[in-house]
What we know:
Blueprint: H1 3-121, H2 129-156, H3 178-210
Helix pairs in contact: 1-2, 2-3
Amino acid sequence: MTEEALYRHQIKVGSRQLEMSHDNYVGESVLSDDYENQLRESQARLHQLQAEQQELERLAQELEELNSKKRIFLSSQVEITEKLSNAVTLIDRELLAMRTELHELEQCRHAFDNRLKKIAKFDPESWTRDNLKLNLEKAIGVIDQATDEYEQAAQHFASMRSGEIFGTGRRRKPTMHAETGEFLAQLKNGLAFNLPIITLALVAMVLYYLK
Length: 211
């Protein structure tokens, strides 16, 4: 092989070595870029998974808080429903008892009012000796009936709120019916204290006329 041919051969070999070296460099560069891309993608995915995990934990905590509030609501619902139901039942009974008592009080007041009118009609000053005995018997009979009615009413209302009208019932706070309470108090005082006085006065008059 001539020197010229040998020189050309060396140049070709060197050229091929340069090409192979360049190809290896390019290949390594491509592999490095792929690895970096995969690393970035993995990191992004990891960040996404962490964000999703945090969101799931937040939702789980929120759900637990809602369930806790729900349990509190259900417990409170049962408790207040029972209280309100019992209160409604007791109020209905109380209203029925109050209506019944009110009706009986109205009847009692009407009877007492009639007795008061009958008692007010007796005027011993206008009686004569001829009708004195008859009028006295009639008046004393009315007084006795009024006394019996008062005692029966006191016994009947003794266990009710209105019993304090007769001095036998349980105490209760003043209500809005001030006029009715005042009237009943006056009725109580009038019948409790005036009836004995009226009876004594009639007896004294009888003794006076019989002298």
